[in-house]
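Students often ask why we bother encoding 3D structure as a string. The short answer is that it lets us treat folding as translation between two languages. Here is a chain of 251 residues written in the first language.
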Amino acid sequence: MKIAIVTGGSNGIGKATALALGKRGIGVILTYNSYKDRAEEVVSEIEKNKGARAVALKLDLTKKETFGTFAAEVKNKLSEIWNRNSFDYLVNNGGVGGPMTMTDLTDTYFEQILNTNYKGPIFLTKTLLTFMEDNGAIVNTSSSSSNKAFVGYSIYGSLKAALSSWTKYLANELAPRKIRVNAVSPGPTHSNFGDGVFDKYPEFIQPLAAQTAFGRIGLPEDIGNVIVNFLSDDFGWVTAQDIEVSGGHLL
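And here it is in the second language, the structure alphabet:
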């Protein structure tokens, strides 16, 4: 059985990815930071599939000093549940968002975006690579704002652009191990990202839908299905790519 680690797997795109993996018979280790109950609900839903197994572990991507302990917990669960000492896939999905203009920019906002969306995934990946199988795959969740200058997203978007760039460098470094590294860049997606911005401000949905070729904004499942396919052997000859998953937003 293949095993995947999905950060930020308690809701939104991470949840959709974890559920799609479970349906394909892939074991899932999903992480959460604030919502243990939601994470455990995802685990329960995955395990409704015959033979599927999953576990939820707490992880704060801003606390690099805890990654060693987290890795030890992962190894313990790999042995306990799957009788394995390694895993196959990593989805660096966990992140935070929300706009802030340069005139309002604070150190707190900058550090949170930097540490959660860029520094955290890099150093977590470094830690986990020590017991990741060769011939595996990594998918990083970037954003369409990495190459489209939305007002208020200069910090978020530029750091997502850095994540997309890092994806290519990492793909090159890991090529000798036959580990594929790719990124997906979602467009506007109706999830609880950004503290549920679309539920709080539903009036934003229709204007964004009108800018999209398919006439709606995305759903977490739209992106999760792409991530799972990227991990699969069907994309075994694809690496160092960043694909926008937006339904044709701002074509």
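Translate back mentally: The chain has a mean pLDDT of 96. Keep this in mind for the problem set.
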